[in-house]
Amino acid sequence: QVQLVESGGGLVQAGGSLRLSCAASGRVNRRYDMGWFRQSPGKEREFVVSIDSIGGSTYYADSVKGRFTISRDNSKNVVYLQMNSLKPEDTAVYYCAAVRNVLGQYVYWGQGTQVTVSS
């Protein structure tokens, strides 16, 4: 089992920045791919970004490319999401996910952290 806890969400004006953190605990004696997703009211959860187990490869949704940066500190079991140039449409609950199954789906999810961007 892996437990994920997100933090760092909040209210920010358009153009501002936030840094989200996702701390992993539990069975963290091995490395695994991790990702961030988000969900806005009335919309389906959407992929934001992922990072491989050693942080060598990252994949971004087109909507956040050039504005968001994912990184990880395996010594601390933490993944970060630096969000710059935030837009009102980035408003959502952001979820951290870890460990892909054989179908490529994430198995473990955090509880989410709210990000609200005001115009």
Write the element-wise H/E pattern from the N-terminal end onward. Answer: EEEEEEEEEEE
Question: Number of helical segments?
Answer: 0
- Secondary-structure-based class equals mainly beta
Radius of gyration: 14 Å
What is the general shape? globular
Number of strands: 11
Q: Biggest sheet: strands, sense, closure?
A: 7 strands, mixed
Kindly, what is the distance between the CA atoms of the first and last residues, rounded to a whole number of angstroms?
40 Å
Please state roughly what percent of the residues sit in beta strands, choosing from under 5%, 5-15%, 15-25%, 25-35%, 35-45% or over 45%: over 45%
The helicity comes to under 10%
Low-confidence stretches: none
Q: Name the assembly state.
A: single chain
Average pLDDT score: 93
What can you tell me about this protein's structure?
The protein has strands spanning 2-7, 10-13, 18-26, 34-39, 46-51, 58-60, 68-73, 78-83, 92-100, 106-109, 113-118. It is globular. It is built from no helices and eleven strands. With 119 residues, it is an all-beta fold.
